[in-house]
Specification:
Blueprint: H1 3-16, E1 30-33, E2 38-46, E3 52-60, H2 63-75, H3 81-96, E4 101-104, E5 111-114, H4 133-150
Antiparallel strand pairs: 1-2, 2-3, 4-5
Bound molecules: zinc ion.
């Protein structure tokens, strides 16, 4: 099986069986990607020590945005807020096909340019997305929604 086929399978599997997709009530902000019609609501639950233990999403989306959201809900678990934000920046850079990641941490003003984004697990199935600018918006939608929540 070629790598491309394998990646397509990962995307389709997450699209058909999205992880952590549950109905979320309307008080949660809706994030939208008008160019494709994707929409997502996101809920990030932390424990008392500030670690993320559950990420839930709801919404309508194409295969790319749904797979990206589904994979994200698994990758963010176990991270503290700083780590989760760093992962979001890294994922967005990866999906855009950027070779460097700028990590900006709230408050401290700390910035770090890392090597090309890697070790993103199943998200690497979306490595071809950056060649299609409209699809980049689909893939980054859930990660931008997470950043909007984590920046509060
Ligand atoms: Zn889309």
């Amino acid at each position: 099986m070629s790598l491309n086929l394998l990646y397509q399978e990962v995307i389709l599997e997450h699209y058909k069986h999205p992880r952590n997709k549950v109905p979320l009530e309307g008080s949660i902000a809706l994030h939208e990607n008008p160019s494709c019609g994707d929409s997502i609501r996101l809920k990030i639950e932390k424990n008392s020590s500030g670690k993320i233990f559950k990420v839930l999403f709801d919404g309508q989306g194409c295969a790319i945005s749904t797979a990206s959201a589904s994979i994200m809900t698994e990758l963010l678990v176990g991270k503290n807020i700083t780590e989760a934000r760093a992962l979001c920046f890294k994922a967005i850079a990866f999906l855009k096909g950027e070779t460097k990641v700028s990590l900006e941490y709230d408050g401290s003003g700390f910035q770090e340019d890392t090597d090309p984004p890697q070790d993103l697990g199943e998200l690497e199935a979306l490595s071809g997305v950056h060649q299609f600018p409209l699809r980049v918006k689909c893939a980054t939608l859930p990660w931008n929604a997470a950043l909007a929540i984590l920046q509060r």
